[in-house]
């Protein structure tokens, strides 16, 4: 019998195993709304075709004495009708299963994935290829005409940030060669050997510059989770810390995340950010801080609000791997020590992010983390003990964050799929209030997730936008017993409210 391919988990993935819980199983979702009811049979055929282009997604997770590792399998995925709560657990130590699932519900096609397998960029490539193949099966090209190959075989969508400036335009894939192999590890490729000089690309120009990965880290990748040793230039620009505000609330009855989807036209939101001279993510984060502050007790008025922001490393260090390849940056604002209006807060967040998210600063930090991970003394520590230590690091770092954010930016799908897809949405399981944003077809979709029942902060967020004349639609998923018991209620059907 031939030996199956395997690979150790990458630097950003190790914490997901130690930090997962029933509240936060480290699962995220990317979904696309079609212009018709989804045909499950055609979606299955599309999945079978696309699955063969992604050897990484054939992996199952195995446990060794000293580490976890991914191993190739012969398992085949099956499309499922959505019946479970969103972002339900995928990885089970006692089961040998694939680390993702493809779902459909009415007009939606959704990919849910265990974060140890892939990040937002890798998942977006898969979703783009899946939707494009599905559209090709449903609307075959007339005889004699050839389909464009853009976006297939892992080329994926073109991902652009939500504004032309100050965030850089990025196309995550330019290499048409073999992609998404199990063994490819961007961290090992770029940060394990000798420094190669300045990293490719230009310095990040704004908060969330084509983040294309999910949030929740710095606590999600130890030693990436630990507070890094910050270069002197960053220390000088760091905001003085106050006591970090942490959101409290009523836990959902069965640990399902409270999901609220907010949709608004993208251009007016971008105009608000440009008027303040900041990136869209910096502006939306400032609005998020203000929304939570308004709905918190008076003690929040003079506390520090901190957020983790993921940065897609592919924009600086070329990689076509769909495995996790991102870093996180922590930004904060201390209220009561200067101007606290949304514009001032956004500019403060932007100033903090720039020096931390440039390629040189990221490379220095990640080389230190990779060296730490590969220290002989740590490599021989048994895996169960490593899990305990990483979980402790995760808990300590959780105390230093108020929220987490992630922005996949503006997505353009291949030509065949583009007119057939409306909104695209992105959200994660969460241990604290979080938002994930992405834009498609001129609509900005912001998905708020939280382990708490309360949604007052989302209402305030919507009020900030509507106060500027921006129309907003808000839809919340049912989580409480009363909501689920409503006549005709379905766990996959939301309660809709127009703000």
Automatic annotation (TrEMBL):
It comes from Leucobacter ruminantium. This is Alcohol acetyltransferase. Residues 141-152 have a biased composition (Basic and acidic residues). Residues 141-180, 198-257 are annotated as: Disordered. Residues 211-222 have a biased composition (Polar residues). Residues 198-209, 223-234 have a biased composition (Low complexity). The lineage of its organism: Bacteria, Bacillati, Actinomycetota, Actinomycetes, Micrococcales. Residues 235-249 have a biased composition (Basic residues). InterPro entries: Alcohol_O-acetyltransferase. It comes from the Bacteria.
